[in-house]
């Protein structure tokens, strides 16, 4: 049975908010860049789970979330939502992860993103490039 997650594609001024995941071996994609979000708890809808996760991870959530797509990879089903990031990056509090950044589409499509906190490039989580390509194609 696939694990269900809800993920947020948050955009501000043409850039996308990304989370550099912690280096914990038993989590999904340790040390890789991904979208904020997480697992659905029992009885939660994907949107409810995403709102909870955003508050837990960055202490903020958007007023509106637009469902974008479902993405399947390995044994994970991701419910992907899109919204505008209506506050500056500096107003977010990173409560989970090593770093966060607003990233251009070109940086995303390169397959790795610079972490100013670590001082190095880190790869994207599995499947993130597929999701981003799908969304960026829809915007053009």
TrEMBL record:
<dbReference type="Pfam" id="PF00293">
    <property type="entry name" value="NUDIX"/>
</dbReference>
<dbReference type="GO" id="GO:0016818">
    <property type="term" value="F:hydrolase activity, acting on acid anhydrides, in phosphorus-containing anhydrides"/>
</dbReference>
<keyword id="KW-0479">Metal-binding</keyword>
<dbReference type="GO" id="GO:0046872">
    <property type="term" value="F:metal ion binding"/>
</dbReference>
<protein>
    <submittedName>
        <fullName>NUDIX hydrolase</fullName>
    </submittedName>
</protein>
<keyword id="KW-0378">Hydrolase</keyword>
<feature type="domain" description="Nudix hydrolase">
    <location>
        <begin position="1"/>
        <end position="126"/>
    </location>
</feature>
<dbReference type="InterPro" id="IPR015797">
    <property type="entry name" value="NUDIX_hydrolase-like_dom_sf"/>
</dbReference>
<dbReference type="GO" id="GO:0005737">
    <property type="term" value="C:cytoplasm"/>
</dbReference>
<comment type="similarity">
    <text>Belongs to the Nudix hydrolase family.</text>
</comment>
<dbReference type="InterPro" id="IPR000086">
    <property type="entry name" value="NUDIX_hydrolase_dom"/>
</dbReference>
<keyword id="KW-0460">Magnesium</keyword>
């Amino acid at each position: 049975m696939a694990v269900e997650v809800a993920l947020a594609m948050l955009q501000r001024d043409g850039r996308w908010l990304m989370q550099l995941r912690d280096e914990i071996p038993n989590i999904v994609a340790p040390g890789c860049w991904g979208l904020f979000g997480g697992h659905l708890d029992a009885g939660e809808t994907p949107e409810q789970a995403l709102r909870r996760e955003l508050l837990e991870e960055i202490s903020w959530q958007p007023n509106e979330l637009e469902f974008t797509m479902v993405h399947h990879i390995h044994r994970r089903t991701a419910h992907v939502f899109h919204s505008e990031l209506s506050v500056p990056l500096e107003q977010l509090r990173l409560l989970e992860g090593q770093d966060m950044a607003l990233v251009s589409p070109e940086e995303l499509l390169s397959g790795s993103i610079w972490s100013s906190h670590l001082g190095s490039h880190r790869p994207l989580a599995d499947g993130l490039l597929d999701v981003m390509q799908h969304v960026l194609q829809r915007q053009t």
